Each structure stands twice: as structure tokens, then as C-alpha cells.
Amino acid sequence: MGGYERGVSNRKKGGSHLQQTKELRFQFIEAHSSEFSVEKMCRVLEVSRSGYYKWKSAKPSQQELRKARIMERIRFHFYDNKKRYGSPKITKLLHQENCEITERTVSNYMNEMGLRSCVARKFKVRTTDSNHDFPIAPNVLDQKFKVNEPNKVWVADITYIRCTERRLYLASIMDLCTREIVGWRLGERMTTELVLGALDDAYAAKKPKRKVLHHSDRGSQYASDEYRKRLKTLRMKASMSRKGNCYDNACIESFHSILKKELIYCTKFKTQQQAYEEIFEYIEFFYNRKRIHGALGYMSPVRFAAQLQKKKKSA
């Protein structure tokens, strides 16, 4: 390096060092402004008052810094949850980080950043065939959705899944206590085999030690001889919704609505394999293990179940 280049480099380094020194002096003056006069400190530290006040006016306020930190956490939670959370859930996550903020402020910050969660789009396909001659079980559940133990009440339902390759149906079973999806199957037709598969998966996964109340709608799949025999074999008691009353099975229907809002309507499934993989990821990794649920004190189903187990052991 020639002498001219070394000179330029040294001047740059020197200028940077002087700037850092001045910055430290300004910070010292600000930190001790309640103890000593600004004028005296500027004179002792050999900096100008005008330079100090210019630095102070250009420096972001504590309020601005706090807003920037909060917006960064909002952005993190929004994308970490794949754009599925709006201001209510993100506010709860911020509260868990000991950040005191209102839902309205979070909503304003999200609007400012252009962050908007998935929006549901109505697309209704009828999946309940109640015009059959199979026996109908009584409505034992009777909308008693608050259950204090896992593997006590399971609720089941079928929903339609859009796919370019072929029409698909999802059969799901939820534990009413933990809201965990304990069994599910994806298939091309609404058959008894489809719902039996979901039931078998749920039983294999949880192995309930006591009699389970199984609630569903009046669909022919759940009322079929094969399904009723399987429930009897697994020591489960059947319960069915009243005719045309969607509220009797509201919890599992709510899950299917959430699934569609947060995944199905936001994704174009080209193949059955793609649909299976993305639904698997959503149910097993996001919904069961990560998605916070208002009815569970804003915990995920798996975390809520773990807390119940911990309380049971310590009792």
C-alpha cells in the first residue's frame, strides 16, 4: 500500500475512533445530566453543547426503541406461525414474554407492517349422510364440552379437502379434554373404512384404560354396523348429535374450520401426496404441538396434556 493510501486509511480509522469517543462522551453526559450541568460536562469533556443537543435530538427515544423491539417480536411470531396468527394470539404470546401491550396496539403495529393473517373463505361441501336405516345413538354428550381428563370423551367428524388430482376427505378424532387430534385419516371416499382407520389410529396412539364416550354426527359411516361393532370391541360408548344441530359437535367442526382457514384455503394441493404431507405437518407439528388454544389457557394441546399429567403425579 502506498503512502497516500495508508494516509487515507489512517484518517478513516482516526475519524471513526474520534466519532466513537464523542459518542461515549455524549452518552456519559446524558446519563449524568440529572447530577451535573450539561454546560459544565461539555466543557470538561471538550465537546460542544450544540453537538450534544444535535446528537440527543437525532437519537431515537426509549418509546421508539421499545416499539421497534415489539414490532420485531410481532414479525417473528407472525412468520414463525406461518402467517396464521392475528393480533389476539400474537398479543398472548407477547404477554408470555412479559411484554405489556394491548391487542389494539398489536393490531395497529401489524397494520403498519402490512401483516395480515389467513382469512377464511366459505366453501361448503355436505359430508353428513343421515338418510339411512342404521340405529341412531342417543345424544349422551349433550354439548358438555368441558372435560377434566384425557381419553374420557372423543369427538369425530369428516370434512372435504380440495385437491386438483382428486377429491379427498379427512376423518378426524379429537380428545375433548386436551383438544388434541388423536387420530386422523385422509382418503378419496367417505367410507366406513376411512372413519374406522382414524378410530384405530387414535386407539393405538392413546390406548385408553377406561371406557371412552365417542360422539359424532348421524352420518352413515359412524352409524354403520362395522363402526358400532368396533366401538363395542374397544369398549367405547356411542353418542350422536341431534338431527341438523351443528352445535352438538361444535369442537371438532371448529377444528376443521380452523384447518381450512389456516391451511386448506391458503394452499393449492396439486396431488394427494402433497395434501397428505402438508396436512400431516399441520396436525402433528403445528396444531397439536404448537398452536395455542384459548380454551386451554393459550397452550398447545400437547403442552396442556403434559401439564395435566404433571399435576396428576404431584397430587
TrEMBL record:
<dbReference type="InterPro" id="IPR048020">
    <property type="entry name" value="Transpos_IS3"/>
</dbReference>
<dbReference type="Pfam" id="PF13333">
    <property type="entry name" value="rve_2"/>
</dbReference>
<dbReference type="GO" id="GO:0015074">
    <property type="term" value="P:DNA integration"/>
</dbReference>
<comment type="function">
    <text>Involved in the transposition of the insertion sequence.</text>
</comment>
<dbReference type="Pfam" id="PF13276">
    <property type="entry name" value="HTH_21"/>
</dbReference>
<dbReference type="GO" id="GO:0003676">
    <property type="term" value="F:nucleic acid binding"/>
</dbReference>
<dbReference type="InterPro" id="IPR025948">
    <property type="entry name" value="HTH-like_dom"/>
</dbReference>
<dbReference type="Pfam" id="PF00665">
    <property type="entry name" value="rve"/>
</dbReference>
<protein>
    <submittedName>
        <fullName>IS3 family transposase</fullName>
    </submittedName>
</protein>
<feature type="domain" description="Integrase catalytic">
    <location>
        <begin position="146"/>
        <end position="309"/>
    </location>
</feature>
<dbReference type="InterPro" id="IPR012337">
    <property type="entry name" value="RNaseH-like_sf"/>
</dbReference>
<dbReference type="InterPro" id="IPR001584">
    <property type="entry name" value="Integrase_cat-core"/>
</dbReference>
<dbReference type="InterPro" id="IPR050900">
    <property type="entry name" value="Transposase_IS3/IS150/IS904"/>
</dbReference>
<dbReference type="InterPro" id="IPR036397">
    <property type="entry name" value="RNaseH_sf"/>
</dbReference>
